[in-house]
């Protein structure tokens, strides 16, 4: 039996499991000690409940995809609207070094995936699907490239395989980031646990995007309306560009257009028209959409799809996980300075490497909630997600496909 859940029901269930996740993180020391993000905990509980209902009673639910898509677009728009060109200069050398780490791992991820696929007797392009297409790109990129690989390269089932692999990546990316950071922090004695933040205290005026998510942001109705107007404009343009670019060489997923439009709107208003952008409102809507999107994404996971992954593909995904953990510990952490900021950035890189930008930000929020702030991480991770990661991934994927 299949049950259809409308937008309001989907939102209610997502909020319930989101707060359940927060409660469990506060009460269960394992989740707190290993910095597992609250939306990931709540979403996984929801996904396991859905799996049990399907396995024992044959009951499945279709949650409203439109509201989840809107929240995803709002999150990526908030990344773009937070990406001021002046912050690029502030990121400086550290941003460049982190981008080198991320770009290098995209290549490593695809080399590992395609090499293992070849060794296991599979098409090398299948290794690309269980490489950066799904693990760095997430569900949006998996759907876009899966269709291309099916229609133009004859890889049957590429979309289903891509969605299952992206599901695996979303789960693992949100699970391993915290433990990697904890291992690095404890091994190198970089920080001690801090008390929970006081939610009633205001956020620092110069805090970066998504920094201090539990702090109070003081906004007015006028600020909220103008900010929602910017979000609506970016998403409207993104939907239009998605339709316009279909079949063209510059075809991109809608969330990439939303992010790019956010960058354009932010910097046109700020630097061209000298309009003061109210970052606190962007932070509020960005953090809210991030938490709800992750909760809904995991809520909507059909874990039984992972059963469709044959043995060789499971082996590839498990080795991809190990490769990411080792790369962030021995490369990212050392390149970024082997300090506390580097440990937080390593957790963010785990999110980029398996799960995409939302997971990266959720990971660093979970770590800093436990061990204290890292302004550098909250500056670099959103900028990397806004300006570079999807471009780097798209260039690498397109280059590789041309040779096959």
Automatic annotation (TrEMBL):
UniProt gene name: gltS
An example molecular function term from Gene Ontology annotations: glutamate:sodium symporter activity
Coiled-coil region list: none
PANTHER family: SLR0625 PROTEIN (PTHR36178), SODIUM_GLUTAMATE SYMPORTER (PTHR36178:SF1)
Species of provenance: Acinetobacter shaoyimingii
UniProt cross-references to InterPro entries, sorted A to Z: GltS (IPR004445)
Keyword Isomerase attributed: no
Compartment(s): Cell inner membrane
Superkingdom of source: Bacteria
Membrane topology reported for the UniProt record: Multi-pass membrane protein
Keyword Ion transport: yes
Protein name: Sodium/glutamate symporter
Gene Ontology, cellular component aspect: plasma membrane
Similarity remark: Belongs to the glutamate:Na(+) symporter (ESS) (TC 2.A.27) family.
Pfam families xrefs: Glt_symporter (PF03616)
Summary of the function given for this chain in its UniProt record: Catalyzes the sodium-dependent transport of glutamate.
This protein's UniProt keywords: Amino-acid transport, Cell inner membrane, Cell membrane, Ion transport, Membrane, Sodium, Sodium transport, Symport, Transmembrane, Transmembrane helix, Transport
Transmembrane residue ranges: 7-25, 40-63, 70-88, 94-113, 125-146, 158-181, 224-242, 248-269, 290-307, 313-333, 377-401
């Amino acid at each position: 039996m299949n049950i259809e859940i409308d937008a309001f029901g989907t939102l209610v269930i997502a909020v319930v499991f989101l707060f359940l996740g927060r409660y469990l993180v506060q009460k269960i020391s394992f989740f707190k000690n290993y910095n597992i993000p609250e939306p990931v905990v709540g979403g996984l509980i929801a996904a396991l409940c859905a799996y049990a209902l399907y396995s024992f009673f044959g009951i499945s639910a279709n949650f409203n995809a439109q509201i989840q898509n809107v929240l995803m677009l709002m999150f990526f728009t908030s990344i773009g609207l937070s990406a001021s060109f002046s912050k690029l200069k502030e990121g400086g050398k550290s941003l460049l070094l982190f981008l080198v780490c991320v770009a290098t791992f995209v290549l490593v991820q695809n080399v590992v995936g395609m090499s293992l696929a070849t060794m296991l007797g599979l098409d090398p392009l299948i290794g690309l699907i269980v490489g950066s297409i799904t693990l760095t790109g997430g569900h949006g990129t998996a759907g876009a490239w899966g269709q291309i690989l099916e229609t133009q390269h004859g890889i049957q089932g590429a979309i289903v395989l891509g969605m299952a692999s992206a599901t695996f990546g979303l789960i693992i990316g949100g699970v391993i980031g915290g433990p990697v950071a904890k291992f690095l922090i404890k091994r190198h004695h970089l920080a001690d646990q801090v008390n929970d933040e006081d939610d009633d205290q205001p956020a620092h005026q110069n805090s970066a995007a998504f920094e201090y998510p539990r702090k109070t942001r003081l906004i007015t109705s006028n600020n909220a309306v103008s900010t929602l107007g910017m979000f609506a404009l970016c998403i409207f343009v993104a939907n239009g560009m998605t339709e316009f670019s279909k079949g063209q060489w510059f075809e991109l997923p809608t969330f990439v257009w939303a992010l790019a439009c956010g960058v354009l709107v932010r910097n046109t208003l700020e630097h061209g028209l000298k309009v003061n952008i109210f970052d606190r409102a962007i932070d509020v809507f960005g953090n809210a959409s991030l938490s709800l999107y992750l909760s809904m994404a995991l809520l909507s996971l059909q874990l039984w799809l992972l059963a469709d992954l044959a043995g060789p593909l499971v082996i590839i995904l498990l080795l991809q996980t190990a490769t990411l953990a080792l790369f962030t510990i021995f490369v990212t952490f050392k390149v970024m300075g082997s300090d506390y900021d580097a440990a937080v950035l390593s957790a963010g890189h785990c999110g980029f490497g398996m799960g995409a930008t939302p997971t990266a930000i959720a990971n660093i929020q979970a770590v800093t909630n436990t061990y204290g702030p890292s302004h550098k991480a909250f500056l670099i991770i959103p900028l990397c997600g806004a300006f570079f990661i999807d471009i780097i991934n798209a260039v690498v994927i397109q280059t590789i496909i041309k040779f096959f």
